[in-house]
Design brief:
Blueprint (H helix, E strand, L loop, with lengths): L3 E7 L2 H5 L6 H11 L3 E8 L4 E7 L2 H7 L10 H13 L3 E4 L2 H10 L6 E6 L7 H9 L5 E8 L8 E6 L4 E5 L4 H7 L6 H4 L11 E5 L3 H6 L8 E5 L2 H10 L3 E6 L23 H14 L1 H9 L1 H11 L6 E5 L3 H13 L4 E7 L12 E4 L5 H6 L1 E4 L4 H13 L7 E3 L6
Parallel strand pairs: 2-4, 4-5, 5-9, 12-13, 12-15, 13-14, 15-16
Antiparallel strand pairs: 1-10, 1-11, 2-3, 6-7, 7-8, 9-10
Helix pairs in contact: 11-12, 12-13
Length: 413
């Protein structure tokens, strides 16, 4: 059949808030459960610290499967069991990436009780990189929500829930794993050459509806709607049965959805596919681990300057001069890659109405002790070259020696 395109949103606000976008996975899962079937979807496994596919026949189980994961899911273990369920006559809904969906469809195409939902996929991280990153966190991670937060803010906030019940939230731009995904560092090379950007072997394909102007004009910005594509007659029949549970807007101009089917193009920068950068990151990761590779690739000048200084480090207290973006980058890099460095806090020329950082205080230049000026190290972490020069000269005038100063952000991009 000819594809049919829609913008779609679940009518239940409670379900909607627990979904990455419009809640379409839940609607089709509800249909299969009403038939007495099973759902096969991806969850975060706290025991293995990996994402893997599991089965459920309850809405409680479906709840764990909601939300985008941005990492390769271990799914080979469930493929044979899908066949067991199908052979017994139970309906099965499989939800996964387009390549996973194509694999399942190719193996069980003769079964009419198989339903497949795939997604518009930018690519996924290698599972081992994700697991390594999770294990390097300060606490045991019990769950990770990549799309937490208010939908009107495009909900690109990542939330960690730890074993002790505490939580931590970051914007994607502040999170190393999310940033490495945005810059394509951790995306599998196979994903960059994926043939399934144009071929979807599924009954439905879903994703984020990216046309913000259209969503605002239709009063849907706060709901973060889905694009829903119906690829088969079976999918069309189910949609007809479940359409009362959603707001459904047909898209008749195929030009509005053409971008979803473009092949992944080589490029550089955020949201581009940089194969060279991904290879450099992977090689560095295999040698040095996640955080060293991350900072070495994205902030090479800073990483090199800190690495050079590390050869001479002898346990001195360390101040980060500058509490803004670059100061926090330097602080995070040192904390993750050079944990033996003793960071004392941030220094600013004049203390304004600033909050304290989670671990380190902010002090004004005139609050430094004589001992600090004589012995501590100062990492200048501001990008403006004029400001760097003024800070350098100011520190020297305060009695700080040249060997105590690291100009970390000099010429950083």
């Amino acid at each position: 059949m000819k594809r049919a395109y829609y913008v779609a949103v679940h009518r239940d606000e409670h379900i909607l808030q627990k979904s990455s976008s419009g809640g379409m996975f839940t609607i089709f899962a509800e249909y299969i459960l009403l038939l007495g079937g099973v759902i096969c979807g991806a969850v975060f496994d706290v025991d293995t610290q990996m994402v893997r596919h599991v089965f459920t026949d309850s809405m409680e189980g479906v709840d764990r499967m909601r939300k985008s994961k941005y990492v390769w899911s271990k799914f080979a273990d469930v493929v044979q069991q899908i066949g067991v369920y199908l052979e017994s006559g139970r309906p099965v809904l499989f939800s996964g990436t387009p390549c996973q969906a194509a694999s399942v469809q190719a193996r069980y195409s003769e079964y009419d009780n198989l339903y497949i939902l795939d997604l518009f996929c930018r690519g996924v991280s290698r599972g081992e990189i994700f697991s390594d990153y999770i294990r390097r966190q300060k606490k045991n991670v019990r769950n990770i929500d990549f799309r937490y937060g208010p939908k009107e803010d495009s909900n690109y906030i990542i939330k960690y829930t730890y074993g002790d019940g505490s939580t931590e939230k970051h914007n994607w731009s502040e999170d190393a794993y999310a940033t490495s995904y945005v810059w394509s560092l951790n995306i599998r090379q196979a994903c960059m050459d994926c043939i399934y950007t144009k071929r979807h072997m599924s009954d439905w394909t879903v994703g984020d509806w990216d046309d913000k102007k259209w969503a605002a004009a239709h009063g849907l910005m706060a709901k973060h709607p889905s694009i829903l594509v119906v690829n088969s007659n079976k999918g069309k029949r189910v949609l007809e049965a479940m359409k009362d549970r959603m707001y459904l807007f047909p898209i008749r101009d195929e030009g509005m959805v053409a971008a979803y089917y473009q092949l992944h193009q080589q490029g550089h920068g955020a949201w581009a596919y940089d194969r060279h950068l991904a290879r450099v990151f992977l090689n560095s990761y295999r040698e040095k681990g996640f955080y060293a590779a991350f900072y070495e690739v994205l902030y090479p000048n800073i990483y090199q300057r800190i690495t050079d200084a590390n050869h001479h480090y002898a346990g001195e207290n360390v101040f980060i001069y500058g509490a803004g973006y670059w100061g926090q980058i330097c602080c995070a890099m040192i904390t993750r890659c050079f944990p033996h460095w003793k960071i004392t806090g941030y220094v600013v020329t004049k203390k304004g109405d600033r909050r304290k950082e989670p671990e380190y205080v902010i002090v004004a230049l005139d609050e430094l002790t004589d001992d600090d000026r004589e012995k501590a190290w100062f990492v200048i972490a501001v990008k403006d070259e004029t400001a760097q020069s003024i800070i350098y000269q100011t520190l020297m005038c305060c009695g700080v020696k040249k060997k105590q100063i690291i100009q970390a952000v000099l010429r950083e991009g």
